[in-house]
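WARN retry 2 of 3 for item q-0093 after timeout on previous attempt; input resubmitted unchanged.
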Amino acid sequence: MHTREEKLNSFGSFLDVLDTLRVKCPWDAKQTNETLRPNTIEEVYELAEALFSEDVSNIRKELGDVLLHVAFYSKIGEEKGQFDIADVCDSLVEKLKFRHPHIYGDISADNAEQVAKNWEEIKLKEKSGNKTVLGGVPKALPALIKASRIQEKARNVGFDWDEPSQVWDKVKEEISEVEAEIKKDSGKGMEEEFGDLLFSVINAARLYGVDPENALEGTNRKFISRFEYLEKKAKETGKFLRDMTLAEMDEIWEEAKHISK
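OK item q-0093 returned
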């Protein structure tokens, strides 16, 4: 691993390269906050992919891409006379210290749960912080992740089940309500009740210490792997999936389940 001085030198060299590219490269020179934004979203998703795969080499690469975007936005801010990368770092340091009074102040926090509860109270006190408990949940978050974050924030102020097992009564209630709407063939009602059911299942995962996003992504990957096996075996017999019976596909699917375990 590198020394602190080497890390600072590397970061300085990176900023020097970005400064040069911003002036000399036609593509870099014309970028704006608006043109970079879609690429930033893509880079964050690529980092998430690398993290889920535990691909160390790719994690390092994708972290670099995300860092480039952070520095690029800071460079644009500097050109506009608004802020630069030092301001970004200074603001972050100030926020981290303010939100960790158990380290830099006189507040006590003996575990991660207590720290999280303190954070919510601190963020409400910040000058430019959240005005409500759920105010800090980004509106643009994907729905599954947003539901998880909403529930976490509610938990941090004490709005939660006393025992994880209590959530199952709620899940069963929501299943019954979905079934009732299906019988009525109510399109809007079904959508609303399916939403309530998904929210309660996400809540259950959280209560049992399971990240619902990671859990669902794991299942997505498992399904893809098994379905690709099904396609491969079908091609080997000269068949198209659409021409096979469900029983034939189920037989190969069972093979795939044993192989992917």
